[in-house]
Amino acid sequence: MTVRVGTDLCRHCLCACSAEDPGMTLDEQFPPPPPETPTYGVVLKSARTAAGLSQVALGNIVSCSESLIGLVERGQRKPTKSFTIAVESALGLNGDLFRLLPNTRVMSVPKWFSEWPTVEENAHTIRTWQPLVVPGLLQTERYARAILAAEPGATEQWIEEAVETRLRRQSVFERNDPPMYWALLDECALLRPVGGKDVMREQLEHLLAMTERPNISIQVVPLDVGATAGLLGGFTLAESDGMPDHVYLDSAGQGTVIAREEAVRQVSLRYDAIHKWAHPAHVSRRQVCEVAAGYGFQ
C-alpha cells in the first residue's frame, strides 16, 4: 500500500476540517456499513500494519500521539472526523474509515484497569481471594478469553486487547525478585467449566505447574465449609515497599482500587478469616489434581 501524506491535513488532525461537504450529513457522504463489518479500530490497525507503520510513525505523520492511535485502534477512544481525514490521507484510504465512523462506539476502560497493574508490578507480596474464578495472574490465555468474552457488550477487538493485557500482567512472576503470591480459591472456581472441558483441563494443569514455584501458594476453600467471610466477593491485597498497601475489590460493575489504611486493614482481616477454612497447600494440590482428572487430566 502506498502511503500518501497530506501536510495540510496532518496539521489539523485534532481540529475541525473544512473538507467535509456542509450540505451533506456524514451518513449521506459515507453510508453506514452493513452488519458484521470490521470495526473502525480493526480497519485502522490493518491499514497501518499493511503500510509498514508503527503507531509512533503514524502518529508522527498525522501529528497525533502514539497513545491516541492505540486508544482508537483498541476502541477506547472515539475518533473525530478530522482525525479520520488525516489518517485516511496518510494511509491512502478512500472512505474506508469514514464509512465506519457513524457506528463507532467506545468500549470504556475503568480506571482500575490502568491503576492496578502498576500496583502489582511494585508489590513484594500479593494475597488474593477468588470465590468464582481462577485469579487473573494464574489464568491461561484460553480461560481468560472465555471469561472476558462473557462481558456484556464486549467486541472481539476489546476481548483480544483485554486478554493481552491480562497475560502481560503475569510477567510479575518473571521478575528477578517475583512477589510472594498467596491465592485462596473457593472450590467452585475449580468446578465451574469455564470455556469447556479442554479449557478447564489446561487451566488446572497450569495451576498445578504454578504451585511448584517457591513463591506461589494456592489453597482451596472446600464447599462443605458453607458460609465464609468471602461470600461477598473477591479481592486482592498488595504490599509494597515505599508506597501504601492497596486492595482491589471485585464488583459486578467495575473493580475498585483502594489505598486507605483502614480499608486495607479490614480486607486483610477478612482474608485471614477465610484462610482458616482453607485446605493446606498439599491437600489443595491433591484436590486440584482430582478435579482436573474429571476434565481428562492424566
Automatic annotation (TrEMBL):
Gene3D superfamilies: lambda repressor-like DNA-binding domains. It holds the Pfam family DUF5753. One of its GO terms (molecular function) is DNA binding. Residues 44-98 form the HTH cro/C1-type domain. InterPro entries: Cro/C1-type_HTH, DUF5753, Lambda_DNA-bd_dom_sf. This is XRE family transcriptional regulator. It comes from Nonomuraea mesophila.
